[in-house]
Amino acid sequence: MRHGNRRLDLLLAFGAASFLLLPWYRQESGFFGLNWLGEFPFSAEPAPGILQLFAHGRLWLLGVVVFFGLGVAARFMADPMRRGAFFAASGAAGLVYLCLQGVAIGFSGWTWGLSESLFGALSDGQPAMGAGAICLAISFVLMFAFGLVERGVMKGDAFVVGSISMLVFLVFVFVFYPIGSMLVAAVQDFDGSFKPDGFIRNLQDPSIWSLSCVIGDGRCGVAWRTFTLAIMTASASTLLGLAFALVATRTRFPFKKGLRLLTVLPIITPPFVIGLALVLLFGRAGVVTETLSSLFGIEPGRWLYGLTGIWIAQVLSFTPISFLVLIGVVEGVSPSMEEASQTLRADRWRTFWRVSLPLMKPGLANAFLIGFIESMADFGNPLVLGGSNGVLSTEIFFAVVGSQNDPSRAAVLALVLLFFTLSAFLAQRVWLSGKNFATVTGKGDSGAHIALPRGVSIGVHAIVIPWMIFTVVVYGMILVGGFVTTWGLDNTLTLSHYARAFSVSFENGSIAWTGVAWNSFWTTMEISLISAPLTAAVGLLTAYIIVRQKFAGRNLFEFALMMSFAIPGTVIGVSYIMAFNLPPLEMTGSALILIACFVFRNMPVGVRGGIAAMSQLDKSLDEASLTLRADSFRTVRKIILPLLRPAITAALVYSFVRAITSISAVIFLVSAEHNMATSYIVGLVENGEYGVAIAYSSMLILVMITVIAGFQLLVGERKLRRENRVAGLGSNSPVPLGQEKTA
């Protein structure tokens, strides 16, 4: 009880400080720059909420005081059930009121004509919310959560209830609110009135749904064309990812380190660079095309520009994601189960087919789902290689920024994409429902993995080795491109591209970063290194809650998380601009909007990887910890996280590299002050400076490899195998019967 009272007291103190001591509205010069301290607290711009209310005439903030005061009064109620009810109600009401007043009142007054007609015109408006308002909103969320804890919800576990409440709030703000803002704009006229004509017209457009087509020549409707491509890409990337994972963990392949490097390379490369490398190889004037033409007289064709080329580029790009998801799952299959199968006289093939592979089903399903969604949301590869074969993501892009300028069409296409991804999500849930895949329990022995059946070993090597060679060739072309004068035309070797991008000089005893790429490079590193740990933490916490906790709306919550991953980055970028360019939250042009976009766009990968890995951890581990009086937070920190190291590594790696290589959303959100690497590289490509663009991309690849290795070292490896340690012996090998020694 004392602990609960202290928790409530700290929360109320935090809420009071938010209203009394922090600037209520957004500071144009930035909150963390602290320039506002010179005029704080009496100037109107940096004034705290209490002075905004009484000194600057913003009387609508009185409702915030009332609801917070009800929470303070509830704190002193003796009955915990009644105290919890009042505390939760005041938190929920305060949060709703705070959000409504922020949306309803803009810079110049009411944003809704209905509000003005009901309450009269306002003499003044309000800027976007600042540190004080945001911190008080967090206080209201936690007031609601701790009120439920007082009433015994989720067995009174404050960590679990608080985490669920905060995640729901953040998902609403950074996923539903932006997408909702975009969809509302799609059925509005220029004056804000309701006009759904354009939305209905686009929904019935035959160019979206036409089935009377030949897939290969691109005359299919854009919806079915994208769906077919996604199925092909997801199937191929999952198969290749499994083959890579098996070779890396179950064989004596001599080049495993090189294999792991090659599986990571495609996801740390800007997507349009892979497309350009494929054009250099297989385009009409490509190296392979010219060689075949000169040797065999084969006439150059345009087969690369269409679904075939997009498919090759997407499989090359997304196989590493499947590998990162699957390697932890393959390693997590308990060797003791395989040993038990062989003890029952099953051969290696039967053991693999009937025991090992079924236990990998969560990973296979998640890898397929991620590959499917990645393909549907991909923007860079279709833009470079699609030609006239547009897919949903590129069609949305041109509907928003092209000559069409049709937000209704963009909204319809986004809804079609959501329909496909939702269908894939539900199919995965049906396939895995009612099955248990736990392989890591609290029991001590795990044994050693059996070797792959000979046929499987030959098959995976036959898949992996040619793909490795192909990947090496593609990246060889990328590497060469940074050292030639004009890529594909003048192959004279030069270092001028690297010098122009990353030159350094010494002026007045200090280093001067004179290269044209340094500004965007440092900005990219800073934002990526901030967003990656946040993405991993939020994603794995969400996975723990989904797998281990039961609460109303859990399935809806999981789908809401996938929405940000399923929607093309183009739509995410446009929706963020529409939602966060005006009050109540104004973040455009800041680093915060880029970090928020990366965290909630990439978080689903951490969620899916965490769910796949956590499905293999028996719940008895949690129960044993809780039985020993550890709370949920300590259980997660001491028991769950050490066993999720592969998933943690995958989440960190993926979120970091996606923050660097993303283009479709970033191109809408960057500013002159915060320009990201991919946006800068696109500008170089548009200006025809291909050599500098390739040099910049190559430097990014090198930096990302270094940081990924650092993440791997920092997180470490999960060890599940049996180690027979005997006192006085330096070997881990089993000791013959009768020769055991005891400590």
TrEMBL record:
<feature type="transmembrane region" description="Helical">
    <location>
        <begin position="591"/>
        <end position="611"/>
    </location>
</feature>
<keyword id="KW-0472">Membrane</keyword>
<feature type="transmembrane region" description="Helical">
    <location>
        <begin position="128"/>
        <end position="149"/>
    </location>
</feature>
<feature type="transmembrane region" description="Helical">
    <location>
        <begin position="7"/>
        <end position="25"/>
    </location>
</feature>
<keyword id="KW-0812">Transmembrane</keyword>
<feature type="domain" description="ABC transmembrane type-1">
    <location>
        <begin position="521"/>
        <end position="711"/>
    </location>
</feature>
<feature type="transmembrane region" description="Helical">
    <location>
        <begin position="351"/>
        <end position="373"/>
    </location>
</feature>
<feature type="transmembrane region" description="Helical">
    <location>
        <begin position="559"/>
        <end position="579"/>
    </location>
</feature>
<feature type="domain" description="ABC transmembrane type-1">
    <location>
        <begin position="223"/>
        <end position="428"/>
    </location>
</feature>
<dbReference type="InterPro" id="IPR035906">
    <property type="entry name" value="MetI-like_sf"/>
</dbReference>
<feature type="transmembrane region" description="Helical">
    <location>
        <begin position="464"/>
        <end position="489"/>
    </location>
</feature>
<protein>
    <submittedName>
        <fullName>Iron ABC transporter permease</fullName>
    </submittedName>
</protein>
<feature type="transmembrane region" description="Helical">
    <location>
        <begin position="85"/>
        <end position="108"/>
    </location>
</feature>
<feature type="transmembrane region" description="Helical">
    <location>
        <begin position="303"/>
        <end position="330"/>
    </location>
</feature>
<feature type="transmembrane region" description="Helical">
    <location>
        <begin position="227"/>
        <end position="249"/>
    </location>
</feature>
<feature type="transmembrane region" description="Helical">
    <location>
        <begin position="690"/>
        <end position="715"/>
    </location>
</feature>
<dbReference type="Pfam" id="PF00528">
    <property type="entry name" value="BPD_transp_1"/>
</dbReference>
<feature type="transmembrane region" description="Helical">
    <location>
        <begin position="158"/>
        <end position="179"/>
    </location>
</feature>
<feature type="transmembrane region" description="Helical">
    <location>
        <begin position="59"/>
        <end position="78"/>
    </location>
</feature>
<dbReference type="InterPro" id="IPR000515">
    <property type="entry name" value="MetI-like"/>
</dbReference>
<feature type="transmembrane region" description="Helical">
    <location>
        <begin position="412"/>
        <end position="431"/>
    </location>
</feature>
<feature type="transmembrane region" description="Helical">
    <location>
        <begin position="527"/>
        <end position="547"/>
    </location>
</feature>
<feature type="transmembrane region" description="Helical">
    <location>
        <begin position="647"/>
        <end position="670"/>
    </location>
</feature>
<keyword id="KW-0813">Transport</keyword>
<keyword id="KW-1133">Transmembrane helix</keyword>
<comment type="similarity">
    <text>Belongs to the binding-protein-dependent transport system permease family.</text>
</comment>
<feature type="transmembrane region" description="Helical">
    <location>
        <begin position="261"/>
        <end position="283"/>
    </location>
</feature>
